[in-house]
Design goal:
This protein is an alpha+beta fold. It contains 12 helices and 14 strands.
Length: about 325
C-alpha cells in the first residue's frame, strides 16, 4: 500500500483498509504506515470510519477480505466524536447491488474511547451503547486468563505436528483427539475410551514438552464455533483414569481437584450464548466473520463466580438449560 508522509498533509485523507487490519490495529496498537493507534487519535482528527465487514458476502462477495474506509484530517483532534458506520445487509436480493445505512448502523466514538478501548469497534459494529456498558462490565470479571495467571487453571494449545522433527515419547499410548471435530453426538462430556490411542511421537521442532495441561480434571475447547447450532464447543473429559491429548484445533485446560467445579463452570460458559455474545462484541476476529478464534480471545470470556449452583446435576442438561443457569446467576444481575 502507498503511504503518504502524513507530516506534509494539510487536507482530508481517505483510504481503504482491510477490516481485520483495522481490528488488529486498534486492538493491539500495532503500527500502520509508521503510526500507532494512540498516535493516530492523538495527532490527527479522525472524522469517520465505515466498516464494510458485514457486506462481505453480499455487495462485496468477490472480496477476499472484509474492508473499511477511514477518513481523517491532518489537524489536532478536538473533543468531537468520530462517526462510526457499520452498514448491514437487508437479507434480500437487493443486497447484491445496494447499500443502505440505517440510523442504528451509526455510532459515535470519542477520542478517549478510540485511544484506550480496543473492543469498542467490535461492540458498536453489532451492538449499541447498552451493549458497550455490559461488555465493559463483563471484561472486568474473572476469566480464563486471570484464573490461569492465579495458578487456578493451566492451559495450552493442542499438539502441533508441524515439521515433525521432534520426538516426544511421553505422548505415546494415550487417547488423542486429532479429528478437527468432536466425535458424533458428543455434548458436554467426552469419553476417552472412544478415541484412538496415539502411536506417533513426532511433533513440531519448537513444540512445548510441557504436558501438564493434559491431565485430569480436564476440559477441551474447540477454537472455532459450530455453525449448525451457532455456539462454541467445549467438553469435560469424563474419566477417572485417562486424560486426553488433542491437536492444535483445540485448547486443553487442567485444574487440580480442588478447582474441578470451577473448571466445569468454564466449560458451561463457553458452550453458552453468553460466550457467543461476548466474543461477537469484543473479538475483532469473530466480529469480522473469522470463525476460528485466537487463544487469547477465548481466554477473555468471563466466568461466573457462583459456579457451585451452575454445575449441579449435569447428566441430562441441554444447551437451553445451560443458558438459563448462567442467566440466573448473580453474574449478569449485578
Amino acid at each position: 500500500m502507498f503511504c503518504l508522509p502524513l507530516s506534509l498533509l494539510t487536507f482530508l485523507v481517505t483510504f481503504l483498509l482491510l477490516s481485520i487490519s483495522l481490528f488488529l490495529y486498534f486492538t493491539f496498537d500495532t503500527n500502520f504506515c509508521g503510526i500507532s493507534r494512540k498516535q493516530l487519535f492523538s495527532n490527527f482528527k479522525v472524522e469517520e470510519i465505515v466498516n464494510l465487514s458485514a457486506l462481505r458476502f453480499g455487495l462485496f462477495k468477490g472480496a477476499i477480505s472484509p474492508t473499511c474506509i477511514i477518513t481523517f484530517r491532518n489537524l489536532q483532534p478536538n473533543n468531537e466524536p468520530l462517526t462510526y458506520i457499520c452498514p448491514k445487509p437487508e437479507l434480500s436480493d437487493e443486497d447484491n447491488y445496494r447499500l443502505i445505512i440505517e440510523p442504528q448502523n451509526i455510532s459515535f466514538v470519542y477520542q478517549d474511547e478510540a485511544q484506550s478501548t480496543s473492543y469498542i469497534w467490535a461492540t458498536l459494529m453489532w451492538g449499541g451503547r447498552r451493549d458497550a456498558n455490559l461488555i465493559n462490565s463483563l471484561i472486568r470479571r474473572p476469566n480464563l486468563k486471570s484464573l490461569n495467571k492465579e495458578g487456578i487453571l493451566i492451559k495450552r494449545e493442542g499438539i502441533i505436528r508441524g515439521d515433525r522433527k521432534k520426538e516426544q515419547f511421553d505422548i505415546l499410548d494415550r487417547p488423542i483427539l486429532e479429528n478437527p471435530d468432536f466425535p458424533d453426538n458428543t455434548f458436554l462430556f467426552l469419553d476417552p475410551s472412544i478415541l484412538p490411542i496415539n502411536s506417533d511421537p513426532k511433533t513440531h521442532s519448537k513444540e512445548s514438552t510441557d504436558l501438564s495441561a493434559f491431565a485430569l480434571p480436564q476440559i477441551i475447547i474447540k477454537q472455532s464455533w459450530k455453525k449448525k447450532n451457532k455456539r462454541f464447543q467445549a467438553v469435560i473429559v469424563n474419566s477417572e483414569k485417562d486424560a486426553v491429548l488433542c491437536s492444535q484445533s483445540y485448547i486443553t485446560v487442567h485444574a487440580s481437584k480442588q478447582y474441578a467445579g470451577k473448571l466445569k463452570a468454564v466449560c458451561l460458559t463457553l458452550i453458552s450464548k453468553l460466550a457467543v455474545y461476548y466474543l461477537l462484541l469484543s473479538s475483532g476476529r469473530f466480529a469480522s466473520f473469522i470463525p476460528e478464534l485466537a487463544v487469547d480471545d477465548l481466554m477473555q470470556v468471563p466466568i461466573p463466580d457462583d459456579f457451585r449452583v451452575m454445575t449441579k446435576h449435569l447428566e441430562n442438561i441441554d444447551e437451553n438449560e445451560i443458558d438459563e443457569r448462567i442467566y440466573n446467576t448473580k453474574f449478569l444481575n449485578t
